[in-house]
Specification:
- There is one protein chain.
- The protein is an alpha/beta fold.
- It is built from 32 helices and 16 strands.
- The strands form 4 sheets. Strands 3-2-1-6-7-9-8-10-11 form a 9-stranded mixed sheet, sandwiched between helices. A 3-stranded antiparallel sheet has the order 12-14-13.
- About 5% of the residues have low confidence.
Length: about 950
């Protein structure tokens, strides 16, 4: 089998989740997934090491008996796997499967007690969920899904693949678990902010007192890698109160190849576990996201000297108790970052005393406000508090950063974008330098005296108000028309300097230059204001090419260009503007130049001469060079430039790691890319069928709505109508069939009467006057021949009236049945079409998988390299085009705002109102109400 990519491994693991999803929720079955993954990984690793050990012993010429003894020696393996826990036993479990799996976990833990004590035994596959337990059949299917997942090192595209997949699972379970997710997962974007702010260095010790699944410790290790350090030089420690969460963290560390991480389980406030020589162990860096607003107990609390200010035991005020613990275990030159609810920043009582204590000691370095809705289980906004003991005695300021407006909305929760992270970190690093200027409406250095004057209230908005400024409104423009030039000028830096020519296309000077409509200025001050604006214009430096030039006309007011009659026309104008296209092309050309210059570094990432590539070295090189390459452009902020590359790199990190360790592998080419290049007609066919399914679904949905009318005569029917028509069809069908049967009998009887009266013409037979057709397709009109004979002979019979009645009843019922059947047939044809299309897509998808596998097998490394590089290039451009489109939308939004404010004057509104009033009055007079 080819090596597993992260995408392939994740898909296999998620399929295993599907077996349990219908039986319990994610918070309940996550332990089973992790436990089974751990069993399979350790068993495969054991087999891998056993084969290697046996080969080494044979090469040394050891006797067979000694080899057999050594192969059973637990000290020879990273983890010793006994027979009860080995996959060769587990894979054959068919009865009492839950008990077999429990025994396997227990024996594995017992044989590796130093590393796995209490990690696995608590997982119980026989646990009752609601009123049910997992059946043997369900667990057998569950095992068989893991049977398909090879987990030896040689199966992985890059060494940390399994750890990355484990993180994907943790994120998946967090997304599925809702409120409970907060117990074990902090959004990775928030963790990234905290890691970059504390900037751990090789050789440091890092501690998380409420470690959850261990994400902060793992991101710290990755950060050291990115900075070019050796992550093995880090000392990692963590503690968590919840046993199952602690177990997840232990497995996370082991699967990430961090067996040295010291993870403990206990209540951190009451019984901190990391001690040295009877004292609390000290750390260089502390990172934490403690559970918000807990109660706690002072009873039997260890190391009470940690707490200078005791919070109330009740009232859910334990937040700053966690902070004091972190400060207590921080080295004298250490730094910590912790997530806190906003309440701790401004509440009074003991919390105010604690803030005073932190600030007077000089420990509190920064307070960072985050957007709301970032965290699982709560929609309230949170903050990051940064404490720094280094140079604390000389610290005279607290940095306040208000970043609560910078985020992107998600379906279930909000998240920080890479550019938001860049902005926060850059602001922190800038503002913590002495003498740094404030960042308007974002961050500032606040003197401790000012905070003290506010009663040590650290409410962020007291110091950094990021509320948008009030929308300016020019009363004269509202009354008499025109767009104030000063408001147009305000867009110079953001838009006109980049889209030169767009301003001139959108705005023209007012006809009366410098003079408002309806006569001159109201007073001397207003005239002076216009004169100053004119002077400012005259001093402006002209720009070359399509760069915007200040109007040479001394107009205080402008008008929208004559062709802009409606606000909706602005979108098309901005979209078609040549200066916008030129500016965007200039930027993309610079980006393309940067890519081409760095392409050799990307190509060199693959292994060469037995040496693996270094993904983190490539990351550092790209980040350093892109800022320099794009420093002269003004369309995007530096944070967007850095953030765009950070987002891009995070997206491709698994693929880049695979390239660094395994080269240009066709497995890294997404299925869709292979299909697009090799089987475009197949994709087109599937798209067309999906489109038609969407149309049909829309039709049936519309038919179910009240007051539905099939105006386009599609043939679709409401479900209630279908039922009614089927009932009517049944009735009409039964009626015409009965009429047909009776008609045939009556016709035969009439023929017999005529024949007895010798009224049948010579040469004619009974069949010539018989009723034609079948029960399914009756010919009621064929009875007319017999009636015509009766008329011609003037024969009298009681059967005639009965026959006419059956003919009329039968024909009418048959006609109605045909109409109804036609309607139902059209409707059913649409239903059948939808079913067939879905069946076709399922069949095509199966065929597609086979085609992709076959096509991928034919792709050599050179072709794979070409396709992968083309994808890397394409998505890089798309990443930054997204920013350019956003900038263009902001420009359009600003123009639309000006149009909405000033395009229609108050006078025009009054005229429209008066006209409407007069029209209404006329209607009322006509109706006699006035």
């Amino acid at each position: 089998m080819s090596k597993l990519t992260l995408s392939q491994l994740s898909n296999l693991l998620f399929r295993a989740c599907d077996d349990l999803r219908g039986n319990m929720d994610a918070s309940e079955y996550k332990e089973y997934i992790f436990g089974m993954l751990f069993l399979k990984r350790l068993s495969d690793l054991f087999d891998q090491e056993r084969v290697k050990l046996e080969a080494e012993l044979r090469e040394r010429g050891m006797p067979e008996g000694a080899i057999a003894t050594q192969l059973k020696n637990p000290d020879k393996y990273t983890f010793f796997v006994p027979e009860d826990s080995h996959w060769s036993t587990i894979r054959h479990l068919k009865t009492n499967v839950g008990s077999g799996l429990n025994k396997a976990l227990e024996r594995l833990e017992e044989e590796n007690i130093d590393a796995l004590e209490d990690v696995l035994k608590h997982i119980n596959f026989n646990r009752k969920i609601g009123s049910n337990v997992l059946t043997d059949d369900t667990l057998v299917d569950f095992i068989q899904n893991f049977e398909k997942i090879p987990l030896k090192d040689e199966n992985f595209e890059f060494p940390d693949l399994l750890g990355a997949a484990y993180e994907y699972l943790i994120k998946f379970f967090a997304d599925s678990a809702g409120k409970k997710a907060g117990e074990f997962y902090t959004p990775s974007e928030v963790v990234r902010v905290m890691v970059e702010i504390t900037a751990p260095q090789p050789g440091m010790s890092v501690y998380d007192p409420t470690c959850g699944s261990g994400g902060m410790l793992i991101q710290t290790r990755d950060y050291i890698n990115e900075c070019g350090g050796n992550p093995l030089d880090l000392t990692l420690a963590g503690q968590d109160r919840i046993g199952t969460t602690w177990s997840i963290c232990k497995m996370n560390m082991l699967l990430h190849g961090i067996p040295h991480a010291d993870i403990r389980q206990e209540d951190t406030l009451r019984h901190p576990q990391h001690k040295k020589d009877g004292e609390l162990q000290r750390f260089d860096r502390v990172l934490a996201n403690p559970p918000f607003s807990l109660n706690y107990s002072k009873k039997d609390i260890d190391f009470p000297g940690r707490f200078a200010v005791w919070m109330p035991e009740k009232g859910k005020k334990a937040d700053l108790m966690f902070v004091q613990h972190m400060i207590a275990v921080l080295k004298t030159n250490g730094k910590l970052a912790t997530v806190m609810p906003h309440g701790v920043l401004f509440r009074g009582g003991e919390e105010a005393e604690a803030r005073k204590h932190f600030i007077s000691k000089g420990w509190l370095e920064a307070v960072i406000g985050l957007p709301s809705g970032l965290f699982y289980g709560t929609g309230i906004p949170a903050s990051i508090l940064v404490f720094n003991k280094a140079d604390a005695q000389e610290r005279e300021h607290v940095v306040f950063i208000n970043a609560d407006r910078d985020y992107e909305e998600g379906k279930a929760q909000n998240f920080l974008r890479a550019e938001d992270i860049s902005r926060i970190v850059h602001a922190y690093r800038s503002l913590t330098v002495a003498g740094a200027p404030e960042i308007p409406a974002y961050g500032r250095r606040v003197p401790i005296e000012e905070v003290a004057d506010e009663g040590y209230n650290c409410n962020i908005r007291r110091y950094v108000d990021n509320a948008p400024p009030p929308e300016p409104h020019d009363v004269r423009a509202h009354l008499h028309g025109g767009v104030p030039t000063v408001e147009v000028d305000a867009l110079q830096a953001a838009f006109w300097s980049n889209y030169g020519g767009l301003r001139e296309r959108c705005f023209v000077p007012r006809k009366k230059v410098g003079v408002p409509p309806l006569g001159g200025f109201d007073n001397e001050a207003e005239a002076l204001q216009v004169a100053e604006a004119q002077a400012a214009y005259s001093k402006s430096s002209p720009h070359s090419g399509l760069r915007s030039q200040p109007s040479a006309l001394p107009a205080a007011y402008l008008d929208f260009a004559p062709e802009i009659e409606d606000r909706r026309q602005l979108a098309d104008m901005v979209e078609r503007d040549e200066s916008v296209h030129i500016a965007h092309k200039d930027f993309m050309d610079q980006l393309e130049g940067w890519w081409q210059a760095n392409l050799p570094h990307v190509e060199a990432l693959a292994p060469a001469g037995g040496k693996k590539g270094n993904v983190y070295e490539l990351r550092r090189l790209l980040f350093e060079s892109i800022e320099d390459a794009l420093k002269d452009q003004t369309l995007l902020s530096p944070h967007q430039v850095r953030g765009g590359l950070a987002r891009y790199f995070e997206l491709f990190k698994p693929e880049l790691k695979s390239i660094a360790y395994s080269g240009w592998n066709a497995e890294l080419i997404p299925d869709e890319d292979i299909l697009q290049s090799q089987f475009p007609e197949l994709l087109k066919e599937m798209d067309e069928k999906r489109g038609r399914i969407a149309e049909l679904d829309a039709l049936f949905t519309a038919a179910s709505e009240e007051d539905f009318e099939d105006e386009e005569d599609t043939g679709v029917l409401p479900a209630e109508d279908v039922k009614t028509l089927k009932d009517e069809l049944k009735t009409f069908t039964a009626t015409y069939k009965q009429a047909f049967k009776e008609l045939k009998s009556l016709a035969a009887d009439l023929f017999t009467e005529l024949n007895a009266a010798d009224q049948i013409p010579a040469g004619k037979k009974k069949k010539d006057y018989a009723v034609k057709g079948t029960t399914g397709a009756p010919d009621f009109a064929s009875a007319q021949a017999l009636l015509d004979l009766v008329d011609s002979t003037q024969f009298q019979s009681d059967f005639v009236a009965e026959i006419k009645m059956r003919m009329t009843l039968g024909q009418d019922s048959y006609t109605e049945a045909q109409k109804i059947d036609s309607k139902l047939t059209r409707h059913k044809a649409l239903e059948d079409e939808g079913k067939q299309l879905k069946a076709d897509i399922r069949a095509t998808e199966k065929k597609r998988d086979e085609l992709v596998t076959a096509a991928r097998a034919k792709i050599d490394s050179d072709e794979a390299k070409r396709v992968i590089l083309e994808r890397l290039h394409r998505i890089l451009l798309a990443t930054y085009q997204r920013f350019l489109r956003a900038h263009q939308r902001e420009c359009l939004k600003a123009l639309e705002s000006l149009h909405a404010k000033y395009a229609i004057t108050a006078t025009e509104i009054e005229q429209q109102r008066d006209a409407a009033t007069a029209k209404l009055k006329g209607f009322l007079e006509e109706l006699g109400y006035e």
